[in-house]
Q: What sequence folds into this?
């Protein structure tokens, strides 16, 4: 069992208050720390920063229910890292193969912005995810996730700069890859294209096969 925050985690007062406000308005939504998705035997861990308010915070599954999941899951399916169909619903039957998805912070933040203290508080759970027994590589989905991963591993951020497409071999043997976030803004402005994201995933597939 990988440690994760309880359903009514009280560690971050600001996030708790925001969660309660959303719960009052949308009582049928998940509105809790979003658990990781995928097998603990995973060789690849994908890390976002935090749940989206009407995405994972609503559905209870990372990158599910808003635009960000479309490119992500489509690509995982294409490269054999997932099976089934992505229908933006945790009941769609999608299964991850050899990979797992989590967020550096498990609760949705107001205005999509976390404080440094909130990131630090939730970092303990990312530490546990990065200790998965078969883990070979980690994909940081965005610069904030990249920095949270390095913090969880006790590494200096200025030693491994966030660069889309970069793949670093870390002192513990893990490979750390970077991609721009799969957000609607990045894909609509073509800061991140399908080809760019697929290139990162294809390189990681090679890493996992060696």
A:
């Amino acid at each position: 069992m990988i440690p994760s925050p309880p359903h009514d985690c009280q560690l971050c007062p600001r996030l708790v208050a925001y969660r309660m406000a959303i719960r009052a308005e949308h009582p049928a939504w998940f509105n809790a720390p979003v658990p990781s998705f995928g097998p603990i035997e995973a060789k690849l861990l994908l890390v976002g920063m935090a749940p989206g308010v009407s995405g994972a915070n609503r559905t209870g599954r990372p990158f599910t229910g808003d635009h960000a999941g479309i490119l992500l899951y489509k690509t995982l399916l294409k490269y054999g890292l997932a099976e089934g169909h992505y229908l933006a619903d945790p009941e769609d039957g999608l299964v991850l193969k050899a990979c797992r998805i989590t967020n550096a912070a498990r609760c949705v933040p107001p205005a999509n912005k976390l404080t440094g203290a909130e990131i630090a508080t939730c970092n303990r759970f990312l530490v546990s995810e990065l200790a998965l027994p078969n883990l070979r590589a980690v994909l940081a989905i965005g610069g904030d996730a990249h920095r949270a991963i390095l913090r969880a591993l006790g590494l200096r951020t200025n030693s491994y700069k966030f660069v889309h497409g970069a793949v670093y071999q870390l002192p513990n043997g893990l490979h750390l890859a970077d991609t721009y976030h799969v957000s609607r803004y990045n894909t609509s402005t073509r800061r991140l294209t399908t080809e760019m994201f697929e290139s990162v995933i294809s390189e990681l597939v090679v890493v996992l096969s060696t």
About this structure: The longest helix spans residues 194-209.
